[in-house]
Amino acid sequence: AGDPAAGEGKVAVCAACHGADGQATAPIYPNLAGQNAEYLVSSLKAYRAGDRAGGMSAMMTPQAQALSDQDIADIAAYYSSLEP
Amino acid sequence: AGDPAAGEGKVAVCAACHGADGQATAPIYPNLAGQNAEYLVSSLKAYRAGDRAGGMSAMMTPQAQALSDQDIADIAAYYSSLEP
């Protein structure tokens, strides 16, 4: 299962667009604060697998490919734990 | 631009998973309440174009393909207007 505290230490790159507090830094990016962890895992794995084109996938695919299953679980747990 | 009031009348199908109030009915689906409209438009257009595989795309692609640009703008404006 994901560890929110570990996830907090892994979101430095994510935070440039999604915010350290899960509030996106520009409206083309999704807010992540309070988002369902299960969905965040599903979407990060879809990006990692190269399943998502369009949108911001040119940015997200390589970022997701740098993440292990545990990294994904931890990051999802962290953002999910934040107040929306 | 999107019209939240018009969007409210177009989310009957979306609401089965994402909730009429934008709170997902199961954790594999994303909450949409208060999500950035610009991001929602981008993701719906990616689904509509067939750019997103994996995840829940088998459900989302045909749903998005039933939507016009105005429908997408209205639905995004509606969900974005809700309290997270």
Characterization of this structure:
The structure is a homodimer of 84-residue chains. The model of chain A has no long low-confidence stretch (mean pLDDT 97). Chain A is 51% helix and 0% strand. The first copy, chain A, is mainly α. Chain A starts with a helix and ends with a helix. The longest helix of chain A has 13 residues, at 69-81. In chain A, helix 3 packs across helix 4 and helix 3 (37-48) runs antiparallel to helix 5 (69-81). The first copy, chain A, has helices spanning 4-8, 15-18, 37-48, 57-65, 69-81. Chains A and B meet through helix 3 of A and helix 3 of B.
What's this entry about, in short?
With 84 residues, the first copy, chain A, is mostly helical. Chain A is 51% helix and 0% strand.
Keywords:
Cytochrome Bc1 Complex, Chain D, domain 2, 84 residues, 5 helices, mainly alpha
Which percent bin holds the helix content of chain A?
A: 40-55%
Total beta-strand segments of chain A: 0
Level-1 CATH class name of chain A: Mainly Alpha
Into how many domains do the coordinates of chain A divide? 1
Structural class of chain A: mainly alpha
Rounded to the nearest angstrom, the distance between the terminal CA atoms of chain A is: 21 Å
Mean pLDDT of chain A: 97
CATH superfamily of chain A: Cytochrome c-like domain
| Series of H and E elements of chain A | HHHHH
Q: Tell me the fraction of residues in β-strands of chain A, as a range.
A: under 5%
Low-confidence stretches of chain A: none
CATH topology of chain A: Cytochrome Bc1 Complex, Chain D, domain 2
The oligomeric state is homodimer
Give the overall shape of chain A, derived from the CA principal axes: globular
